[in-house]
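Bit of a strange request maybe. I'm writing a small parser for structure token strings and I need a real example to test against, not something I typed by hand. Could someone generate the tokens for this chain?
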Amino acid sequence: MLAFISWLPVIAIVGIIIWELASKERGIQRSIIIASIAFIVGLTALGSYFMQSRMQERTLRVTGYASKQFESDLVKWSLSLQKTAYIDELKDAYNSLSKDMNDYKARLIKAGFEEKDINIQPPTSSGIYSDYGHLTSYSVTQSLYLLSSDISKVESQALDPSFFADRGLLLQRSDLEYLYSKLPELKKQLIAEATTDAMDRAKEITGASKSKLGKLKFARAGVFQITEPYSTDVSDYGYYSTDTRSKSISVTVAAEYDL
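Reply from user aminoacidic:
Good idea to test on real output. This should exercise your parser:
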């Protein structure tokens, strides 16, 4: 815009000269010459403004990338036991299932787990109906959650179903979720590394093209992808797999530099 304003005095002077000449000479040839001068001056001013504006807007956009493999340091074990009870046996089913859960909790404490890390949820029940819509029995379910940093010990317990088999218990669900307690710090580290990678890429491009890299205009981090090692799973909204103990985390940073 400043480049265009700087041309305004020149355009004004030329315009005055043209007006004076046009007022003295009314010949067709003189008018054509005057119009040509005005056209050339206008194009020159417009071209100068356009070129300087384009030079001021020269930027380079690059995308940096960083990834790292890490090991989970926490595991959450979720298990649910289920019993089926006839209509008149619902209370007994609640009591029996509660006893089984507390017995298993005592077994976990004996194995070395902290009581504060074991959480037993209230039981729930749902009706079971016949094909004709009549209530025939109930399904009673109760869940237990264990959160521990001793991953190997939790895995050992989760892979040993003898307690449930000996009592004839139906293990409805048993899931291990592998977590990482220092994930916020790891994310900050990855963003810094991806930003550095973006700058390195920008320097390589400008170096090869004999250009000069200017200041960083903006940088935007993408979503994190936390997957199994060597997995190709990605999501536009981010991905966080808790299925495996070993994990891989990656992130991209889009950056724009002045040239």
